[in-house]
Amino acid sequence: MIEKSKVYNQGFSLVIPAYNEENAIESTVNKCYEVLSSIEGLKFEIIVVDDGSKDKTSERVPTDKCHLISHPKNYGYGQSLYRGIQNAQYPYIGIIDADNTYDANDFKRMIPLMEVYDMVIGSRKLTNQSQTVSLMRKTLKALIYFFSEHYSQDPNSGIRVFKKSLVDYGGHLFSKRFSFSTSLTFFAALNYQFIEYIPIEYGDRTGVSKVRHLRDSIRTFILILTMAIIYRPLKCFSCLTILFISAIIGLFTVKHKINSNSFNAYVQLLGIATLNTAMSFLAFIMGKSYVDQIAIPSKRK
Questions:
Q1: What is the Cα Rg of the chain in Å?
Q2: Is this model's pTM higher than 0.85 or not?
Q3: Following CA atoms 299, 155, 131, 221 in sequence, which dihedral angle do they give, to the nearest 10 degrees?
Q4: Beta carbons within 10 angstroms of residue 147's beta carbon
Q5: Contact present, 47 and 15 (Cβ < 8 Å)
Q6: CA 200 to CA 33: how far, in whole Å?
Q7: CA 88 to CA 46: how far, in whole Å?
């Protein structure tokens, strides 16, 4: 049995991003407040970030139980989480969506585990998914495993508890849209943090989903590649080399079907494309390092 974790003494900040959630935000905050208040000895705060909602979300936030941060316009799910975490006063962070899909009672199981782990994630059992979405999730898990050697049961789960220092160190790399959760999981895995998963129930949301699976999946895959180039450049260059060699072998297998001039042109184009890609990798890494050095420091407001 795990004893009460240091989260109890050092404090816990729960961040709830909300965009057009007028029908769910009040019940979500009330439930979270009730659950956290019932955990004896826990110092906590709840931060709601209204991401430029066009409905009555801000009006329905029970501000007697939480701090409200309002964006002047919609910046994105990830930016809302990032802003809330920046403004958190405690070193341990929890996040939960505002649409009633997650049960706040799961925090009672997650918080004590922070005595042992750097992040605890609620792992959903998703059954009603299309084949396309299911394939995208499997591909995402495979990429995360390939680059970090960490098998993530649910990399983009919207309920989790983690150390604020993870975002302090890597937040500038995270997606400011729906891939923020995946960014956090991947960053922690790349940096050999201890991650635990607990099974949770996942309910029907209140209101309309803002997720666009194809668009957001493409952005997520680009994000994974971006972070992999920074933290696992050797693997990225190795993959590029393997693709180049495979393409050369493929060209030689069909060499007898094309004339020599066309064959030489294809080889040259392939070489130029590979070199350009490699140079792009290097330029990205150098550019990212420069941007990190001159980035404007965040300020608590």
A1: 22
A2: no
A3: 60
A4: 21
A5: yes
A6: 19
A7: 9
